[in-house]
Design a protein that fits this description.
This protein has 123 residues and is an alpha+beta fold. The protein is built from four helices and five strands, in the order ββββααβαα. The strands form two sheets. A three-stranded antiparallel sheet has the order 4-3-5, with helices on both faces. Strands 1-2 form a two-stranded antiparallel ribbon. Helix 3 crosses helix 4.
Length: 123
């Protein structure tokens, strides 16, 4: 039995990569077992993670700028695809607030599921 090889299509239109969806992501420092960054992106989370670590512009390479030894550290980046109806900026703000009080439900089902996932990962 053979698995079919299917391409992952990355759309480039007019010289620009077309976003793949809406994502929130949480950087966890494995040595400290702490959250060091929360972000949101319309692009593939692996790409965004790479840019965070390699771009010299602090507006794009935020983790590199905020945590200079990040390139040598060990992190898990937990990425969560948001529903298409979600406003990423509002969801990111709600997630940050919920992570600040990780034991209190936010009242938003998606955010609460993300917080629970982060809590399990930190355990």
């Amino acid at each position: 039995m053979s698995d079919r090889v299917e391409p992952r299509i990355i759309e480039v239109r007019g010289g620009r990569v077309v976003p793949t969806g809406s994502w929130l992501y949480v950087w966890v420092d494995l040595a400290q077992r702490t959250i060091v960054h929360v972000g949101g992106t319309a692009f593939d989370p692996e790409l965004r993670t790479h840019v965070h670590l390699t771009d010299d512009d602090p507006a794009r390479g935020r983790v590199k700028a905020q945590l200079p030894p990040a390139a040598d550290g060990d992190f898990d980046v937990l990425a969560f695809r948001l529903p298409s109806s979600a406003d990423r900026a509002i969801a990111k703000t709600a997630l940050i607030a919920a992570l600040d009080d990780i034991d209190r439900p936010s009242g938003d089902e998606v955010i609460d599921e993300i917080v629970q996932s982060v809590r399990r990962h930190l355990a």
